[in-house]
Write a structure and sequence with these properties.
alpha/beta, 11-stranded mixed β-sheet, 13% strand, globular
């Protein structure tokens, strides 16, 4: 598949049309989605109508947007005025928002063609969606942004939008072998996106090509006065970050975290090979006191806020919730205000720590997930703990699909950057890809086996 960036250029140069790109995307979906189940809503007629409108703009010589004519999918917790938003639950079946989410308006203004809604776990929480992993249908795609990751991995679309409250962009991107980017908290407006946790909810992007996460991230980044987390400052220029070179040799850090005992053998082996390939640019440290209690704090904040924000769902539609989710909602309602405030204060302390930490380091390199995706039959979307601390602190995170398991399933490597240093993080990603590609080329020349799939 062609990248979104290339699609826009091809439309601009008259080499293709939006109608041709959207038609091809709809055909690919028709061929494979009965088995994959990445999509819960498709509006073929409206998508083709949008595509024709984008082509007419091009033919008339008018201004073209940064995503002009590119087909895109939205996680089904993002409001759209012209299609339902059901949040993966029968409790909201047929729910039709009155307005587009702010980020959807940004996408449309940039010329993107919204094909439809991708599958999510119910209320972007714990229960798996029906979606399968495109690399092997016996495996889970992860969650909660299951459909967005799977649709991109299957080649249905070049880019899709997801969200992350714990690990719901980075983990499925790792499992499905695509790029996943969760920008800094406050970069992308959340107005019109299901609120589960006002403290932790963040928006992210999936893409088959690295530059596309930056392209889309630039389009949907905007100050939103309605969103309390949104900051009124200039945003980092993400695509500039991808396309620029490091001015000096980078300085990365690998933290040996207490939960690394959950790493699979092939994941740890692959990560160690990546660290070796990056040479002396990675300093290895044990996680110390600044990390104490952060995983538990994330749970307290998440469960307390989701129980409060979805209290009406729990009260009026409890029969539609799984026993596990119903129990966690009930547990969240019992968390005291004192425990919640203590968790918030611990989070604030960690944010302060990382504020100075990145004066000395360019990025943290860490696993994206414990290993390959779990089998679908297990009924789990996988453990999100490898994203928990970074999401809690609102740090920008990038999944890079560079490893494969012994079962030929993708395993991602995660880079984490300083808050609002998203362009710097993506520049680090470009450097890392270039470095690993060089190592791969050398290994191929020497007929050696490489752990990467680049």
């Amino acid at each position: 598949m062609t990248s979104a960036l290339q699609m826009v250029q091809m439309i601009q140069d008259g080499e293709t049309t939006s109608v041709a790109l959207v038609t091809a995307a709809l055909e690919r979906i028709a061929e494979s989605d009965d088995a994959l189940k990445a999509w819960v809503w498709l509006d073929r007629d409206r998508a083709l109508e949008q595509a024709r409108a984008m082509d007419q703009l091009r033919q008339s010589g008018r201004a073209l947007g940064a995503l002009h004519g590119v087909p895109i999918g939205l996680k089904d917790i993002i409001d759209t005025a012209d299609m339902p938003t059901e949040c993966g639950s029968v409790a909201l079946a047929g729910c039709q928002p009155e307005c587009d989410a702010v980020l959807v308006s940004r996408l449309k203004a940039a010329g993107a063609v919204i094909l439809g809604k991708t599958a999510t776990t119910p209320f972007a929480f714990m229960d798996p969606a029906a979606t399968r992993n495109p690399h092997n249908l016996e495996y889970s795609p992860g969650g909660s942004s299951a459909g967005s990751a799977a649709a991109v991995a299957a080649g249905h679309i070049p880019v899709a939008i997801g969200t992350q409250t714990n690990g719901s962009v980075i983990r499925p991107a790792s499992f499905c072998g695509v790029y996943g980017f969760k920008p800094s908290a406050g970069m992308i407006p959340r107005t019109g996106v299901l609120r589960t946790s006002e403290t932790l909810d963040q928006v992210g992007v999936f893409a088959r090509y690295f530059e596309d996460v930056a392209l889309v991230g630039d389009v949907i980044s905007e100050f939103d006065p309605v969103d309390p987390s949104s900051f009124c400052r200039p945003r980092p220029r993400l695509l500039n970050g991808v396309c620029s070179e490091l001015p000096v040799e980078p300085n990365l850090v690998w933290f040996e975290m207490p939960y690394f005992d959950k790493l699979s053998d092939d994941s740890r082996e692959g990560m160690m090979a990546v660290l070796d390939a990056l040479g002396g640019q990675v300093e290895r440290l044990d996680a110390g006191e600044p990390f104490t209690g952060l995983v538990e704090s994330q749970k307290i904040i998440h469960y307390h806020e989701i129980a409060r924000n979805l209290a009406k769902i729990h009260e009026n539609h409890n029969d539609t919730l799984s026993p596990q989710v119903s129990k966690l909602f009930a547990h969240g309602a019992t968390i005291s205000d004192q425990a919640y405030q203590e968790a918030i204060e611990l989070r604030n302390g960690a944010i302060s720590y990382f504020g100075s930490f990145f004066n000395d380091f360019d990025a943290i390199i860490t696993p994206s997930a414990p290993g390959e995706a779990p089998l679908f039959s297990v009924g789990s979307t996988g453990n999100p703990i490898f994203s928990t601390v970074w999401t809690l602190c609102g740090l920008p995170c990038l999944n890079m699909p560079v490893l494969m398991s012994e079962n030929d399933m993708p395993i991602g490597v995660q880079l984490v950057g300083g808050r609002e240093d998203d362009d710097r993080l993506l520049r680090m990603g470009s450097w890392m890809l270039t470095t690993l590609n060089a190592v791969e080329a050398d290994a191929a020349e020497s007929n050696e086996t490489s752990v990467t799939k680049l």
